[in-house]
Every structure is written in structure tokens, then in C-alpha cells.
Amino acid sequence: MNSKIFQNRIFLTIFISSFIFFLILLFRWPFYIINEKLKSYIINKKNHIYLSDSAKVNNLINDDIVVLTFDEKSLDKLWFPISRREYKPIIENLNSAWASIIAFDIIFANNNNLDIEWDNILSESIKNAWNVVLWWALISKKFESWETLQIIEKPLDKFLSWALSFWYYQPNVDLKSNIVTSFRPSAELYDINKDLFTYNHFSISVLKSYYSKIYNKDFISYENKDNDFYYLRPDYKIPFLLSWHKDILINFVPLPSFSENKYSKFPSYSFIDIYEWNFDPSAFKWKIVLIWATAKWLKDIFNTPNGSEYWVYVLANIINTIMTKNYLLYLDNNLELLLIFTLILLSVYSNLSRSGYVLVFSNLSITAIFLVIFPIFILIFTSYLLNYLFELFFSLILSLTISNTIKYLVENKNKLKLNKALSEYVSKAIAEEVLSNSWKINLDGERKKLSIYFSDIEWFTTISEKFEPEDLVSFLREYLSVMSDIIMDSNWFINKYEWDAIMALWWAFTPYENSSYYSCLSALKQQEKLLELNKIWWKRWFSTIKVRIWLHSWEAIVWNIGSSWRKMEYTALWDSVNLASRLEWVNKFYGTYICVSENIYEEVRNDFEFRYLDKIRVKWKNKPIKIYELLGFKWQISDSLYEIKIKFEEAVSLYNLRKFDEAKDIFSKLITLWDNPSKFYLEMSDYYINNPPNSDWDGVSEMKSK
Asked: What does pTM read for this prediction?
């Protein structure tokens, strides 16, 4: 495939995004348990928010559900398993309290051979109550010629014939996370005779019995469902967790762990208190009463989004979810995967941008929208849950990592090509130095006073994005060739090229003489030549550039570094060079294009026109330095530019005298004349007007970068 295709940002974005999306799909199953734990945590926190608002509690918890538990307190007085004769007072007392439904999480499948009489009494109690829901057990049985089947074990006919309805028990425990998150409202199961029947879940049977009694209609035998809903009654539909899915998600109300001694969110009473009529009857009037054990040693405990809970509370949560209609649904899988792919596309495309502003802004926006705003809106303001919440986070991290790695490799490859293309720039001075020493390379170094030059192209990364690699090399070759000729014609030694940047030394190989003058002359010639080049480039590429130049003069150590006879570089080292490299950045800060140090200014102020800019202290330096802008030859700048210079320096003087209001007025007027340095002082004047400086303020500007 043509490598130019991979240089196309759109194609590269699609290619990288598809690869990342494939990785996300590949690792989707290993992330399953993480997602389940995240969903459990979010549901729990979401409901805690509701519970903290008393106005919303009634919307989350239905007060028609009461839990009756066989706890440690009951064990102290009644032996377990409870004799069937003990259930008679429970049924009678609850009916006396006008309980609507009495649901037993207990199966009476075998005859009590020790006490047949009490079986008959219990049967009579169920008959008289006419509001008891009994449990049908679901067991696995393997036939000789059949595979293992789920089969119903039902209560004795003497109990079943008088029960209001009956139900099967089958918790939907996720095999990977081992958490109960959903239930199936009905199931088609084989009985002992291998006949297929449809059985309702406990919660459905309880609610059908409850609404049948309230509305005096028969909803117990009503069965109906479609692809999206299960119908409890003709006007009451319960949504499946996904379209075409047969399960319903349970919205667990936050409850204390079974090991914590806290009061449950659902009203809970001890079996023995009801047995002995030690309770307020009004607490059970028209309520659904769920009966089962919570004694620790019985171990009837399941993992839920709330942690470990007794099964009776799981059932209470199922019924509560349906009665409050606080249903939870999963966002459509395909829609969510499309969302993740969109996130990857946007992230990769923005990261392949060469613009730092686009890169930062787009990534902040993408992160905020996809990882903050969207999840918060979905999880708090809707009933939906995200299936791939972790993948949503992971896809952004992966897209950032891979796209930036590829971007670095591509840019590094382009830089290598560019460096190879620029390798023809060999200094004549180096050759003369090597020949004069009979090819003996001096690695010791030599102290010399010289002028140091740094330049770079403003917004070069953004500009280079407009070019194909070949055009970029051609453009840089032309630019560097012209600039280098001016530098070397003025006896500069070009120390190095760093893509678009140039570092040069003046008088590195000959005695120091008028270096400051020729350095300023060279800088002005380059800016003049740049005006001509921009006219050509505009016609050719519809693009122009601006170049920032910094000049400094001081002592430095010039020497050869590297490996003898293999790779050498003649350069300058010392504090002055380090300072000059940092001060080159000052142009960007003040919006100037030729900036010089006070050393250059003091030596050639009678030959050139300068304006005083500031007194600054660069990062990691204690001693401040004065800086100036080179405007042109002495007495040869325009009247308007000279007027700006005078006004600007007047305003700076007022600024340093702490007369910020007066200085601000002048800077405000200069900005209307497109004077860039005035922008900085206007902002600082505003700042100090509102935040007066300390008494020891010396007017020095701190350069925090580089």
C-alpha cells in the first residue's frame, strides 16, 4: 500500500480507530467483572442520593412491603426447623392484622410423619386465610435417557390446593461476577412427567395475587409478554433489561450488610414477635409480608450490588422495583459500541493534530462529554445503565496512548528525513579549523567572547501541517538556504539546525570585533529578505511566515564535542548560551521579532534604534537582565514607529513608578496601533491596579517557562 495513504490524517484516524476498537472488543469479556462491579457501585451510590432526599424516598421504596424474619431472637425460643404447628399462629395473627399477602419462602413438600395432625391444622389455616403464597422448588434431575433438566418440586397437595398462588425459585446468579442482578418473570420448565409448563417467579405470583385481591380480579392466570415487556396485568408492563431479552433488572435499594447491626430500609420484624403477638397490627395492614430466615448460620445469603444480603431481601427488592416502577435498563449494546467507536475516532483525530491548542481543547472537551457529562446524565437522570463503562474509559486511554505514539513516530521519521536533507549545510569555518590543526581535534575547549544568535519560525508546527513532507523539505531548504547565506556572509558560524530553528555563533574562529554590530545588521537583513520570500511563498503555497530572532553577547566556551574521527560537533557551552536559548522565547511572550540583550544594546545603541522592553528574570536564574527590541537603523525608522517607541517607554516608566492607571491609559492607546508588547503591560497594569504589589517590588518580570 502506498505510504502516502498513511500520511492522510482521515485515513490514519480510521485505521488507528478500527485497530483500537478491535482491541476493545477483544478484551470485552475480561472487563466483564470490572463492569459489573462498577455498575453495582453506581446503582448503589445513585440510590443513596435518592435516600438522602426525604422527598424522594417514597419514590424509591414502597411501604407496602414488610419482611418477617426467622432470626437469632426467634431461634432462642423456637427450634429450627420450625414445626409446622408454629405457622398456624403466624398466619392467624397476620390475618388478624389485615395483611394482604403472606408469602412463605418455605416448601412443605414432605409429610410430617411425626405430627400429621399439625399438617392438617396448617392446611386448614392456609384455607381459612386465602392469602398465602407458597414456594415451588426448582431442582436439577438427570434422567437415564435425558440430559439434566430443571424440574419443579411442589408442596403437598393438602397445602397447595388452598394456596392463593405458587411460584418457582431460581435466582439469576451471574456465573462470572457471582452477583444476583436480575430475575426471569416466568420460565418454561418440565415437570416430573416431562410435560412443559410455564411457571411464574415468586415476585410475579406475589404481585399478581396482591393486585387480584386489591382489584377483585383474577390476574393470577394472566400471561402475556412481547419482545420488550412482560405484562403483570393488561395495564401493567415491566420492561426487560434489553429488547428480546427475557430478564428484568433488579434495582436494589441500598441496604446494610447482613453483618451490620443496622435497621433495614424495608420494615422488618422478628418471627417470634408475630408468633407471640408482640407487635403493632397497623404495621401489617394491607401489606405484602415476606417470610424467611435471616439467622446467620442458615447461610441463605447471596451477593448483590449491595454486597451480601439475605435472600428474603433480594425478593423484597424485586417486588419493590416492580411496585415503584424504578426500572433499570441496559443501553442498547450496538448504540453503546457505536458511542465508544465515536469516542475513539474523535480522540484519535484530535491527537493527530499538530496544533497544541486543538489538541488540548479537543481532548478536554471529549473527556468532559464522554466520560463526565454523558455518564452522569445517563446514570442519574435516566433509567439506563452502561454495559461497557470501563471500556468507555479504557478506549480513551488507549486512543490517547496509541495515537500519540504513532504521531511521535511519524514526526520523528519526518525529522530524520529533514535532518538528512539539511546535512549539506557544512560550515567552511569548521573545515578551516580542522585543517589548521592538521586534523587534530581539540576537545578541551577555549574561552571566547562572542555573539550568540537564535531564531525560529513562529507557529511552525501549525504551518508545517499545511505541507506535504516533500513540500515541507523544499520550503525549509529554501528558507534555511537564504537565511544561512546571510548569516555566513556576515562571518557567522552556524552551530546547528533544529528543524526550523537556527543557532549561530559570531566570531567563534576569529578575534572578536564588532560582533554586536554585524549580528544586528544580519538580523535586519534576514527580516528584510523574509518580506521578499513571503511574497513568493504566498503565490506558491498560500502561506507566509514570521521569524523570531534573539541576540546576546557574552563569553562562552567553544569546543568540539563527540568521538574523534567519527562524529564531531563544534559548539559553544556556558551560562551565556543557556541564557540566550531561554531568552529566544521572550519574543513569543512580548510579540516581538528581533529582541536583544542589554549587552548588545550597550555596544551598538548609537548605530541602531532600539526600544526598551522590560527587565526580566528567566526561569532558574536569579540575576535579572534588561531586554530591548531592535527596530532598525538609527534615524531610519518611520515617524509613527518612533512615536510608538517614545509613548511605550514613557508608559513603561510610569509602570515602574507604580503609576499603573496612567500607564494603562497609554498602553490601551498603543494597542489600537497593533503594538504587541503593550498587550502584556496592559494586562499587568490591570492586575496590579486590583492587586497592588508589595513594597519590595522591583518591576522585574518573571519568565516562568524555559
From this structure: 0.53
